């Protein structure tokens, strides 16, 4: 890989990272607050990076989101529940890395013909979105479902039905949004940009 190609790839990664940071800190762009939890649109950026750049770069962009989310939780700029659960990097960072890794890998396996990208992009978008929902909410249930001395003020057993409700009411719209926006945005990037065309080289 030539130096110019590497520099171009690093620049694109930097652009995606900047978009992720913007979505995290500008109100109502990356997170839509719903009670103590939030509906997110940032996963769509990670999935687009993963399908255009590949699973490794997708994992890096997802990691940027996770680290920023983790920092927000530590600095009390997240949601009420986020400031409690997102301090655990296995909830805030790892699932976001896996979004990019899984979505990018899945697209690589499914997209053998660059003239037929619709279904691979749709499937990768849905699976990437569900990866985020299942792993984050699953992590909350796993690590905090039985409560702890530190979290004695919160009854996570009573919160479980709410978490399941969020999985249905938030997770499904997030998956639908990814199914629509990932093909819409990623298709021209894959077909008409050099960085996207390299996925099929």
From TrEMBL:
<feature type="transmembrane region" description="Helical">
    <location>
        <begin position="175"/>
        <end position="193"/>
    </location>
</feature>
<feature type="transmembrane region" description="Helical">
    <location>
        <begin position="150"/>
        <end position="169"/>
    </location>
</feature>
<feature type="transmembrane region" description="Helical">
    <location>
        <begin position="12"/>
        <end position="32"/>
    </location>
</feature>
<feature type="transmembrane region" description="Helical">
    <location>
        <begin position="119"/>
        <end position="143"/>
    </location>
</feature>
<dbReference type="GO" id="GO:0022857">
    <property type="term" value="F:transmembrane transporter activity"/>
</dbReference>
<dbReference type="InterPro" id="IPR024529">
    <property type="entry name" value="ECF_trnsprt_substrate-spec"/>
</dbReference>
<keyword id="KW-1133">Transmembrane helix</keyword>
<feature type="transmembrane region" description="Helical">
    <location>
        <begin position="44"/>
        <end position="68"/>
    </location>
</feature>
<protein>
    <recommendedName>
        <fullName>Integral membrane protein</fullName>
    </recommendedName>
</protein>
<keyword id="KW-0812">Transmembrane</keyword>
<keyword id="KW-0472">Membrane</keyword>
<feature type="transmembrane region" description="Helical">
    <location>
        <begin position="80"/>
        <end position="107"/>
    </location>
</feature>
<dbReference type="Pfam" id="PF12822">
    <property type="entry name" value="ECF_trnsprt"/>
</dbReference>
């Amino acid at each position: 890989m030539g130096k110019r190609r590497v520099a171009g790839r690093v620049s694109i990664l930097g652009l995606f990272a900047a978009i992720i940071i913007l979505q995290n800190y500008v109100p109502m762009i990356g997170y839509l607050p719903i009670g103590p939890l939030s509906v997110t649109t940032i996963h769509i950026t990670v999935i687009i990076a993963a399908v255009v750049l590949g699973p490794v770069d997708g994992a890096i962009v997802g990691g940027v989101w996770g680290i920023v989310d983790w920092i927000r939780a530590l600095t009390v700029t997240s949601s009420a529940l986020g400031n409690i659960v997102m301090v655990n990097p296995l909830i805030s960072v790892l699932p976001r890395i896996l979004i990019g890794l899984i979505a990018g890998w899945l697209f690589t396996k499914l997209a053998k013909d660059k003239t037929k990208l619709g279904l691979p992009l749709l499937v990768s978008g849905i699976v990437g979105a569900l990866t985020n929902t299942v792993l984050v909410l699953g992590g909350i249930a796993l690590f905090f479902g039985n409560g702890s001395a530190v979290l004695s003020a919160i009854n996570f057993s009573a919160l479980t039905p709410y978490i399941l409700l969020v999985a249905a009411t938030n997770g499904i719209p997030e998956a639908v949004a990814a199914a629509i926006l990932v093909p819409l945005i990623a298709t021209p990037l894959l077909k008409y940009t050099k960085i996207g065309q390299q996925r099929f080289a």
